[in-house]
Amino acid sequence: MNLTKYFLWLATFAVLGVIALSQLAIPSVVAFLVGLAGATLVFLLTSQNSSSQQQSQMATTTLYVGNLPYKANESNVKSLFADYGEVFAVRLMKDKRTGKRRGFGFVVMPEADAQKAITELNESSYMDRTLKVRVANDPKNPESDSSQFD
């Protein structure tokens, strides 16, 4: 939760607290401390939920999908992978000069579902083609192939 939302929650909680506690004979210092503790509790609970949601959203895997039929489009591939989990993105590569598909692409899905998709779809037949599905190499950190130095 960002700071602006926190202050809005704090102001709302303070106004409600003033209204509720004005009916009771409680010193204003005690009322202020109760309100501050309540607002802090609300902030901590909501920030923990949002941080856990962000972590689950970040745990994705990009899969390389090779030997795709040239007539397959993004929605076809998304439907194929959706059987194994949520699909966040599909990107099919095209030739820059001709604009035609190159027969491979990338699918982004949750890390937990990616291995199931690889197991089920790698070497499977799709539109009369045998798919190649694996975890994509990270272009920012290409894995060094130590076998070329042997």
Characterize the biggest β-sheet: 4 strands, antiparallel
How far the N terminus sits from the C terminus, by CA atoms, comes to 52 Å
Helix content: 40-55%
Strand arrangement, major sheet: 2-3-1-6
Give the overall shape: rod-shaped
Could you tell me the mean pLDDT? 82
Order of helices and strands: HHEHEEHEEE
DSSP helical segment count: 4
**CATH class value of the largest domain:** Alpha Beta
Instruction: Write the CATH fold name of the largest domain.
Output: Alpha-Beta Plaits
Which class best fits the helix and strand makeup? Answer: alpha+beta
- What Rg, in angstroms, do the CA atoms define? 26 Å
- Taken as a percent bin, the fraction of beta residues is 15-25%
| Fourth CATH level, the homologous superfamily of the largest domain | RRM (RNA recognition motif) domain
Could you say how many structural domains there are in total? 2
Number of strands: 6
Low-confidence regions: 144-150
